[in-house]
Specification:
- The complex is a heterodimer of chains A (386) and B (312).
- By secondary structure, chain A is mostly helical.
- Chain A has 15 helices and no strands.
- In chain A, helix 2 crosses helix 15 and helix 12 packs across helix 13.
- The longest helix of chain A has 38 residues.
- The radius of gyration of chain A is 31 Å and the shape is elongated.
- The mean pLDDT of chain B is 84.
- Classes of the chains: A mainly alpha (386), B mainly alpha (312).
- At the A-B interface, helix 8, helix 9, helix 13, helix 14 and helix 15 of A face helix 1, helix 6, helix 7, helix 11 and helix 13 of B.
Chain lengths: 386, 312
């Protein structure tokens, strides 16, 4: 027996008694042989692990903490000396300020008077000021807040860093953490919308292809309607109508407009498969229509659906970025690559390029890897296509 | 021929009706009551009732649908909700600037992509071929937004080679001064996907027998590429370019927005931002109609390019 058959595959393949490799095992083997595909897969998995960690709050949960000064430049752009110079200057400034207020001017004729006044001030500072019986209504809350600040707020009130590893945005957020958080939004929207769109397309395609006739005509009519309106125009129309921003809205918009591609392919697959012998056999043992469609036929065409999902993910991530950029996408307060690019557009004029570069690089790397992996996956699952 | 065109137009009717129904369903049913959008924040019931009467939305749905169909047929969508300008004049005046950008862009893009595809498809698997393909994949993975932001920043703002944005009165000024950079950026964005596609179309032809025959009888490589192969690869290329044209009208909205070009795409964005439903409805229906008509034109072009095609 071929020893390579025993190699574990991460795709769940039911161990078949006659142990001839199934479609998924064969596809996995072809994929393993493709170096570019494996590198692309590794990059995609790295992105997925990152966004998983960030969604459960292990990393980048504190992206909203304003750790740096406004528009802190990336560390690598500023040489070491310049940083220490900058801090030196700052310290010098601070010390000079304290010296101005604290020390005496020997030439000042009033210095004795000032000195005595200062002493008085110091002595009085501990004395309770007369507040004419008016009690501060927020005193309790304020003192609680002060205590809480003194306890935990140390980090929040500490000096903001002059530089950060990849710079900071307008509010001093760390760009690396912000990019991870943006990746989480963009990729999650892309993946969930792609699964929903493929689900819709598969459902419609299965019904249309399996039943044929009038049902097929009806779904084809839907298909021709949706494809005669340009994709982006349809998205914008739905965005105009829905009027409410939110992650779930944008997922629904993308799924509602993106089902046509999977529909066409799945319909063709179901038309091909419904006349095969195994479906007749299922019919003979009395399987219902739904059982034949989704228990018998679907496993044989699921690879088409999988390729469609990965094609759609790339397209939807790009669409989400454009929608969020225009302000029809994620709500205010949620960061995505699109909203980052929107901020970056104005920052570039000020010469603050790091947010633009971070969002662009993250997106370019993911999309390139995902596209390469999708191509390889399609070749691996359907070797006839080559 | 005439019979063919008439039959195709007749077949479009159900799809067009579907588009109208979809748009109607979206804007009159999902969209909620537009009277509240129109009346603004300070409104009283009398005002709202008045607006509803003006728009005809106090009528039953089938009458509203009939009003909508009449609007489409007569090109009269009433006035824009935000500017008060007639919708038909908005569309007509925005069409010119859009075309000034799109026609040169489409011609340049198609020619560039065909030339590059012919160049690399004949060296399949070579270093040049693979390098160009990898460059295309990477180029396509960068968001179009980045091309526009960076292009505008460097070429217009930093180096002052082009105006940053704007639109003039005369056609020549618009084409050569204001459209130059948008067209160049559009070219940079759209050549990569076209090139990838055209390459596969040409690869299907490269190993055909007629190419071998042409070589055998001593036809120059140049003539094989540009006459023999191109003519055979023309059908899928024409399909792609033609069917993309109406979508491009909308697809250019980002370029139009960044460069303040008063075109159709920018109008759509503005209308979505302002909830200007009549404008979006009109543009959606007409662009869908244009898509269908262009599909028909494509089929007619097939016959001009390839006499073997029989229109039935």
């Amino acid at each position: 027996m071929n020893p390579s058959l025993q190699q574990p595959s991460h795709v769940s393949v039911a161990a078949q008694p006659q142990s001839s490799p199934g479609l998924w095992a064969l596809a996995w083997r072809r994929l393993r042989a493709d170096n570019i595909a494996m590198i692309a897969l590794a990059i995609v998995v790295a992105f997925l692990v990152t966004i998983f960690l960030s969604s459960i709050g292990v990393i980048a949960a504190d992206w909203e903490v304003e750790t740096g000064i406004s528009y802190a430049p990336p560390t690598f752009t500023v040489s070491k000396d310049a940083i220490s110079d900058a801090t030196d200057v700052k310290q010098a400034k601070q010390s000079s300020q304290t010296s101005i207020s604290g020390t005496d001017n020997p030439l000042d004729p009033l210095r004795d008077v000032i000195k005595s006044l200062r002493h008085q001030e110091h002595a009085e500072s501990g004395v309770v000021t007369e507040d004419y019986g008016i009690v501060d209504p927020l005193e309790k809350e304020m003192s609680e807040i002060r205590i809480a600040l003194a306890k935990s707020g140390k980090a929040a009130t500490t000096i903001r860093a002059a530089t950060l590893p990849f710079g900071a945005d307008k509010w001093g957020h760390d760009i690396i953490k912000k990019t991870i958080k943006g990746a989480e939004t963009s990729i999650l929207v892309g993946i969930i919308a792609a699964f929903l769109a493929t689900l819709l397309g598969t459902l419609f395609g299965a019904v249309a292809g399996y039943f044929g006739g009038r049902v097929d005509d009806l779904f084809n009519w839907f298909y021709s309607i949706f494809t005669s309106i340009p994709y982006l125009l349809l998205i914008l129309s739905v965005a105009a109508v829905l009027q409410q921003k939110g992650i779930s809205t944008i997922i629904l918009i993308l799924a509602f407009t993106g089902w046509t591609g999977p529909f066409r392919l799945m319909r063709a697959e179901y038309m091909k498969h419904k006349a095969r012998e195994y479906v007749w056999a299922a019919d003979a043992i009395g399987a219902s229509h739904w059982r034949k469609m989704f228990i018998h036929i679907f496993p044989n065409v699921s690879h088409v659906a999988l390729v469609q999902v990965s094609i759609l993910v790339v397209g939807f991530i790009k669409s989400e970025v454009i929608l969020s950029f225009l302000g029809f996408g994620v709500p205010v307060g949620t960061v995505s690559w699109g909203s980052m690019l929107n901020e970056a557009q104005n920052e570039l004029i000020l010469g603050k390029w790091w947010q633009l570069v971070a969002a662009t690089m993250a997106m370019a790397v993911l999309v390139t890897a995902f596209s390469l992996f999708t191509d390889a996956l399609r070749d691996a699952l359907d070797p006839k296509l080559k | 021929m005439i019979a063919y065109i008439l039959r195709r137009l007749w077949q479009m009717a159900p799809t067009m009706l579907g588009v109208i129904l979809l748009v109607f369903f979206l804007f009159n049913w999902v969209g909620g009551d537009p009277a509240y959008i129109l009346a603004g924040k300070m409104s009283n019931p009398a005002q709202i009732a008045n607006i509803r009467k003006q728009l005809g939305i106090d009528q039953p749905y089938y009458i509203q649908l009939w009003i909508f169909i009449k609007q489409i047929v007569t090109f009269d969508f009433g006035n824009s909700w935000s500017t008060g300008e007639p919708v038909s004049s908005i569309i007509l005046t925005r069409l010119g600037p859009s075309m000034t950008i799109l026609l040169p862009l489409t011609i340049l893009e198609t020619l560039t992509a065909i030339a590059l595809a012919l160049g690399i498809a004949f060296r399949r698997g070579s270093f040049t071929d693979r390098a160009v393909m990898i460059a295309c994949t990477m180029g396509m993975s960068i968001s179009i937004l980045v091309y526009i932001i960076v292009g505008q920043y460097f070429f217009a703002y930093q180096f002052s080679l082009f105006p940053v944005q704007g639109w003039g009165e005369s056609f020549a000024e618009n084409l050569f001064k204001f459209s130059a950079l948008p067209i160049l950026i559009g070219l940079a964005v759209s050549v990569a996907p076209s090139l990838r596609l055209f390459r596969t179309f040409i690869l299907d032809e490269v190993n055909q027998d007629y190419v071998r025959t042409a070589r055998a009888k001593g036809v120059s490589e140049h003539r094989i590429k540009w006459v023999h192969v191109l003519r055979n690869a023309a059908i899928p290329i024409i399909t792609y370019v033609m069917s993309n044209l109406p979508a491009l009208l909308i697809g250019a909205f980002l370029i139009e927005r960044f460069f303040s070009i008063p075109g159709i795409g920018r109008e759509v964005i503005l209308a979505v931002e302002r909830s200007d439903f009549p404008v979006i409805k009109a543009i959606t229906v007409y662009v869908a109609a244009a898509t269908m008509i262009f599909n028909l034109l494509t089929d007619l072009l097939y016959q001009a390019v390839d006499p073997r095609v029989q229109l039935k």
